[in-house]
Write a structure and sequence with these properties.
By secondary structure, the protein is of the alpha/beta class. The chain is 44% helix and 12% strand. The chain has a 5-stranded parallel beta sheet with strand order 3-2-1-4-5. β4, α7 and β5 form a beta-alpha-beta unit.
């Protein structure tokens, strides 16, 4: 499975509320059951994180991680989410994560961001915009929700 991760998933490994599920999720990566799809946007956000969070992905091989970029197409799609009022303009980076994952046709995007990403109203909004602009629907879940896959 190709699974796009946002910054909250990396940080969740160090958060008491999410550490157990995050640990189990990353064990699936280590076993080769999941290929992490990581964007340059995530890597830029990690530069502002504490060192232990910033360097977490360094332990994975190139076979375990697929790197993707925030393209002009993704920027336009992210702006459409905001224009359609799925979220406000302050959530632009979240929209860019959704757009990158959509355009890269990942199997699932995982996040611990319940306010702007893993939220039924938002998910329906993102997918409505995707369909309106001829993109596929995107599965959005928490790491915990995909552990039994």
């Amino acid at each position: 499975m190709r699974i796009y991760v946002d910054t909250s998933v990396i940080g969740g490994f160090y958060d008491k509320e999410f550490d157990e599920a995050s640990n189990a999720f990353f064990k699936k990566v280590e076993k080769g059951e999941i290929v992490l799809v990581v964007s340059d946007l995530l890597e830029a956000e990690l530069l502002r994180a504490p060192k232990h969070v910033r360097n977490y992905l360094d332990k994975y091989s190139k076979k375990q991680i697929q790197r993707v970029e925030l393209t002009e197409e993704a920027k336009i799609l992210a702006d459409r989410y905001i224009f359609e009022k799925v979220v406000g303009a302050t959530s632009k980076a979240d929209c860019q994560h959704i757009a990158i994952a959509t355009i890269c046709k990942v199997d699932v995007l995982v996040s611990w961001n319940f306010k702007h990403i893993v939220n039924l109203k938002r998910i329906r909004g993102y997918n409505s915009v995707n369909l309106k602009h001829n993109y596929t629907m995107l599965e959005i879940r928490t790491p915990k929700e995909i552990l039994d896959l």
